[in-house]
Amino acid sequence: MTPDIETIGIADLFEPSSSARDRTDARIMAAAAGIGFMAVRDFPGDDWLTPDKRAQLLRLFALPDEEKQKLLRWNFDRSKKNVYRGWFPLQPTAVSYKEGIDMGPDLADAADASVSDDPLCEPTPLPAEDTLPGWRAAAADYYRAMETVGNALMRSIARGLGLPETIFDAYFDHGISTLRLIRYPLRNANAGVDIRGPEFSVVHKGETRTIIGREHADSGFVTLLAQDGVEGLQAKNLAGEWIDVPPANGTPAINFGQLLERWTGGRVRATRHRVIAPKTARFSIPFFYEPRVDAEITPLPLDGAEPFEPFLYGDYLWESATNFVEMSGIKHLRQPRSKKAS
Ligand SMILES: O=C(O)CCC(=O)C(=O)O
Ligand SMILES: [Fe+2]
């Protein structure tokens, strides 16, 4: 039998070096190199992982359509300038049946609102304060809390790989992490969309289940994913079987992204995951912990790791992220910044 997804207490990661911290590092590395999924508990800001606090962020979904439409991005509304940050509406013919918002670091620190011409650094369109009083401050606090946990995991992963714990630090100064809020409503059987195709359903435990989040691996370094009490998320284990990632308050699921998989020459696993339709609407809040846009990713000094050509994080991310359906039609809007790009 393959082991289940472990829940790891990470309080030690916020303390000075100790043998307890070494053990936590080793458990994290074992999860990262093994199943590629874990859950964590006991960290600063974990009060954000309670239903009440999450509900503060999810208030966004109760806004009237006209307010959500103000936040749309260019591929859904050609009058908008933002192409990467902002609202993505339901796309009923797509396998992934979800709506939501992608928010960047300017949410947490207005000074990060960019003067750059890079769409990966564009400011996030956000609802006006009087439309949703207190929401921005709550979302900004959440962003900062998850960034702190991301930092702690990043250092733990460095130590777990046997590298200096600060080896990744400079890459994450002014990172472009994304806080995403997602709502998956129930699919309306009368919407005139044919979802009988094989991509739209899977058989799980003998039952046919509709897919609402297409199978994928995340692009970034690590993802901190809060689920709102409703099942549906599944991860592919080492045996190639789909296992449930149960939603639990206080313990976000953590998975590792393709950037980290590449960077570590395959030592860490970017586990594929998907969402199958539950009986009620489902909400989730992934935080994609990511480096700075101009980080040059070069092979780490790891024995036996698969070598690779250095690349710029922004170039890699754009190529990868724009393959997702909610980013469709924007790939041509950014050219690689790498000097070596041909
Ligand atoms: O909704 C979920 O639980 C998963 C979301 C996800 O995998 C993603 O946005 O990358
Ligand atoms: Fe994901």
Automatic annotation (TrEMBL):
Pfam families: 2OG-FeII_Oxy (PF03171), DIOX_N (PF14226)
Domain of life: Bacteria
InterPro entries: DIOX_N, IPNS-like_FE2OG_OXY, IPNS-like_sf, Iron_ascorbate_oxido_reductase, Oxoglu/Fe-dep_dioxygenase_dom
UniProt record, GO biological process: ethylene biosynthetic process
Cofactor(s) this protein requires: Fe(2+)
Iron found in the keyword field: yes
Keyword Metal-binding attached: yes
E.C. numbers: 1.13.12.19, 1.14.20.7
Keyword field: Ethylene biosynthesis, Iron, Metal-binding, Oxidoreductase
Membrane-traversing stretches: none
Start and end residues of each Fe2OG dioxygenase domain: 175-291
Listed GO MF terms: 2-oxoglutarate oxygenase/decarboxylase (ethylene-forming) activity; metal ion binding
Catalytic activity field: L-arginine + 2-oxoglutarate + O2 = guanidine + L-glutamate 5-semialdehyde + succinate + CO2; 2-oxoglutarate + O2 + 2 H(+) = ethene + 3 CO2 + H2O
Pathway: Alkene biosynthesis; ethylene biosynthesis via 2-oxoglutarate
Family: Belongs to the iron/ascorbate-dependent oxidoreductase family.
PANTHER family for the chain: 2-OXOGLUTARATE (2OG) AND FE(II)-DEPENDENT OXYGENASE SUPERFAMILY PROTEIN-RELATED
Protein name: 2-oxoglutarate-dependent ethylene/succinate-forming enzyme
Native source species: Mesorhizobium kowhaii
Lineage: Bacteria, Pseudomonadati, Pseudomonadota, Alphaproteobacteria, Hyphomicrobiales
